[in-house]
Target: Endoplasmic reticulum metallopeptidase 1
Amino acid sequence: FDFLNWFLIYYPDWAGIIINAMMAALGIALIFGSFFIMARNDEVSYSRIVGQFFISLGVQLISVALGIGFSLVMAVIMNAAGGALSWFTEVWLIFGLYMCPFIICTVLGPVLLIRFYKVENVLLQTRIMLFLMAQQMIFIAILVAITGLEIRSAFMFTIVVVFFNASTIVNMIIRFKQFHW
Model:
């Protein structure tokens, strides 16, 4: 694949499958391993952190589904109004018509959950980290699915998972310290 238009990287299919599987396994291990540190820092049980993680994962999945649905509704409305291909006139219209509604919907779910669903003894920083880890889990699931379908473009999600894994390792090294600025 072409890495940032700098150079080409060639590797066989089996190497890509092994790399993707290792990154996915490492990501899952880091996620569940970091729950121990979070539970110890917040002085709550491991199961409480895992439960909050799955709530965060569910909210993330619902938010993404709503974002996709809302973008499709925008496409149907544009088609009904006779402007189905109006985004061809200006490239920025793609962002305004489809990406903005998607981003608003995907951000709205976590914001509303954090605002209105209070959790005793779990710090706000921990809840935000759980949302980031839920997003990492979604990317890992996409990576595994694309790798299983033998689609060569899986490297795009591999890069995302590698950076998520690196940031999780850094957070584990500093033991999820709660810095207040």
About this structure: Residues 55-117 form one domain.
